[in-house]
Amino acid sequence: MATVDKVDKEEFLLDEKTLREIESMKGAGQWSIVWRRIKKDKMGMLGLYIVLFLIMMALVSWILLMVDNWLTSANLLLGDPNNPASLNNLYIELWYPGMDQSNPIVLFQHPRYQFADQSTLPPSWEHPFGTDRLGQDMLSRVFFGASVSLALGFIGQMTTVIIGTVLGSLAGFYGGIIDNVLQRVIEVLYSMPGFILMIFIIVLFEDVQIPGGKYAVVIVFFSLIGWGGTALIIRSNFFSLKEQDFVEAERALGASDMRIIFRHILPNSLAPLIIIITLGIAGVIFTFAALAFFGFGDPNAISWGDDLNKWQNNLLDYPWMPMFPALFIFFTVLGFNLLGDSLRDALDPRLKD
Amino acid sequence: MSLKGYIVKRVIYIVPVMLGITLMNFTLINVSPGDPVIVRLGLLHCETPECYNSAYNREAIEMGLLDNDMYTVPWFERYIDFVNDLLHFDLGRSWYNTQAGVGIPISQLISERMVYTITLNVLSFIFSLLLATAIGVVSATRQNSIWDRSLTIAMLLGYSMPLFWLAKLIMLLSYSLFNFTGVVSKDAFKTPLIFNPNFYKYLILPTLALTLGGLVFMARLVRSQLLEILRQDYVTTAKAKGLDNRAVIYKHAFRNGLLPIVTIIGSSLPGLLSGSVMVESVFGWPGLGTLFLEGALFRDYPLMMATNTIFPLLFLVARLLTDITYVFIDPRIKY
Lengths: 353, 335
What we know:
Number of helices of chain B: 13
Oligomer: heterodimer
Structural class of chain A: mainly alpha
Order of helices and strands of chain A: HHHEEHHHHHHHHHH
Number of helices of chain A: 13
Radius of gyration of chain A: 26 Å
Distance between the termini of chain A: 36 Å
Number of strands of chain B: 2
Strand content of chain B: under 5%
Distance between the termini of chain B: 5 Å
Shape of chain B: globular
């Protein structure tokens, strides 16, 4: 009966393993459990590292550009801040008090400055990503494009999620006529292919002048039409949660509707919200890149999508020009997708495949 | 309710949704800044303001923005006109595509291009559905094997790749291998299309790109659905009673997995249409998407209105069809 013993032992071992896992989770909060689950998921950690790296890159590039602009406008560096072609504004430079004004530390080529004698250079030590037709350093373009590209993704997704959450919670909590109207509106918005509707709107509102340039218009309309998915998920979450005992108890204590919604039901819907945001950012970055690719972006902005649009027809002869911005769009979307999938598995193990 | 009654009800239900969509689009056009007449006049050269004004008025009347007594037509009247024309299958005349000074009827433009979009989309939809099913079944039945892992990673990479860029990369690859970029030229569309070998030659790359685009989306879903179902009790029962693996998967698991898959495919159709716009414009495929993009670049409002009516209509009809297929997939559903 050796075989039977062996099987029993194996089953027992497995059980012990599970028990150990349960033991290690004891006393840990929900978020620390989620964090441990993500740490075990190699792909999720890869996604997290990619996302963190990109966020760092966006922040550093934004700060560097700000510092450089500030130094120039405060007359600490030579050059005219409003004219990127001004001779002393070719590089992103650092300067500290006591340093020779005409000889600061040169960090990067300025993303806007065009070195006419250095156009269409293939990747080399001096220009690791090559240079484009205008003589701009591609590495610098890609590095400084990160802040605009990522900011667009974050802002676009956050505004849609906020609108969707507010409307979805109202519809889910009160039901009735609000819910009915909301559902019809979502139906109409959902029947339009989003990308086509966005192009339509961008063309119509091309001439609108609002602070923030063309991309501000894009973001406003994107959040006005994109909230449907979030609203539907939050709505169904509210429907199931508002029947639960803790809501009933809170109501018996005399809590107002707003308190119930924002202090009790919404925190319980946090898990789907986090998943929507992470996976959604990937989608938004993708959409904005696609819009820019087809010429509906802002040609003056430094962003990956616009660079891709500018050089897409040079793919066959100068492949490095469009390749690097595209590669970074790809990595960003990949990172957010990996992180989002891993978060979904960690927050809701029932959905794990 | 009988199936027939259900279908009639759903068809009637399309009407208010379409009204909502057209009203939304029409309102957007009307609240947007800019004067379309000036856009249409473009670089018209006039010596005197009178000449310009008369040209302006002529064009505005032609475009239906002014009536014959030079009064502005209110936007709701124009909307009612638009809906009325739509009910008579008249989509108006294009502002940008003109022939001898008169706009070409949009229905003519669209009927010329419709066949290209439908060929491309139907072909790639069928291919991606078949491939996605195959890939989903392979990775779900051999979960955590090397096949499953590599397929999952490949799908993930494809999923994160922007579709327009995928199309460009396919173009680059084909150019370096066969010296053929796949950008369509005139000889591809000599009628009859069926007997035109060039048509098929130029169809290959756009179909490939769109197939891959749909495939990566669907394969993930098929895999996760099948995995969910393979854990069910009736699958265990089927295995326990000695059925071979093939019968278990295709007779028991797969048929039950179809329903959620069909739902998700139905709701992903607008994405497929958007994808078709991207792929068409990369390869210069003269379908509806290219027509729409051209219209958008030249602010051809009637053409944009028309495409904005047709794409949602296609989507609503497709969703109706998916809902009807439920009945055939799942005998428990009765209407």
